Amino acid sequence: MCKTVNTRSTPNLRKRGGSPDSATSASADPKQKLTGAGVMPSFDHTDVSQRKFDDNPFMISDLLVFLFVGIPVMAHMGARLFASEEIGPVDMAVALIVSYVFVEPASGVLHVVLDNEKFNSWPLLGEVAISFQRHHDKPIEISWRPTLNFFLEPMVPWAIIGAQSLFIKNDFTVAVLFNLFFTTQLMMFAHRWSHMANSRKPPGVKTLQNLGIIMSDAHHHDHHRTYDCNFAICAGWSNPVMNWLTKNGPWDEDNQWWFTVLAGFYFLPLMLGAYRGELQMPTNPF
Ligand SMILES: [Zn+2]
Ligand SMILES: [Zn+2]
Which ranges are annotated Low complexity under compositional bias (predicted)? Predict the structure, then answer.
């Protein structure tokens, strides 16, 4: 259970087209203790009816973005990094860690924004938010979506960040953005696996969860009890801070100002580049 001290009134138990019981079998009382340590809300992995999944409504647009933005941008970055005299294997490993450290809190802020129904009427963002919020009603569905379908889902958000590499002079920043493709996928799949029965998890996933490299099922299922905590969905280590901020900071999870924080995460590469005077027009690395 989330243990963050809440100095606001009561936990925000939001309902997305149904009772919380439709998301978990935990009681509607968010404060009710579950029996025994580490007991999950019993998402029914065997209920065949829950295997029906909603197709990704953005499948075609995500595929087009992957083919015509994702692959070219990754190829551009890869060619640049391969030719770079500043970036070696150690730099790439450090860049991988930096991208992992970036994606964890970014996932929390993205989740806070997309869970917020106040954004549902916004152009473009609204459709994504509504689609995202459906996960609260059918949490198991995420574990049954076709893998390719799921893989394509973060293409647009990643492309917005990845394409900024074209304008960045600093090779290490480009290395971070290159690795961000993979850590973004890790974040997405960490969420999927947290809803997947242990018997269906790919080999090694349980080890990654046990090591804390990705979040445990229990950690994420706490979010599905009350929808007001544990928003980060990669490793979860940023959630104590995020939980404290949404409970005690200037903005709770329903505040639309979180969008500005999300924009800050999204355009951090360009902002850093501008601050350091390291922006450039795209070059041809081939
Ligand atoms: Zn949520
Ligand atoms: Zn979930």
Answer: 19-29
Instruction: Measure 7 CA to ligand 2 centroid, in angstroms.
Output: 25
Strand partners, 168: 279
Tokens of 43: 């998402």
Residue 256 φ/ψ, nearest 5 degrees:
-75, -10
What is the SS3 assignment for 144? Answer: coil
The one-letter amino acid at 284 = N
Q: Where are the alpha helices (DSSP H) in 139-250?
A: 147-152, 155-162, 171-194, 205-211, 217-226, 239-248
Please say whether the dihedral angle defined by the alpha carbons of residues 119, 123, 129 and 134, taken in this order, is positive or negative. Answer: positive
Centroid of ligand 1 to alpha carbon of 182 (angstroms): 22
Domain extent listing, the chain? 52-251+258-275
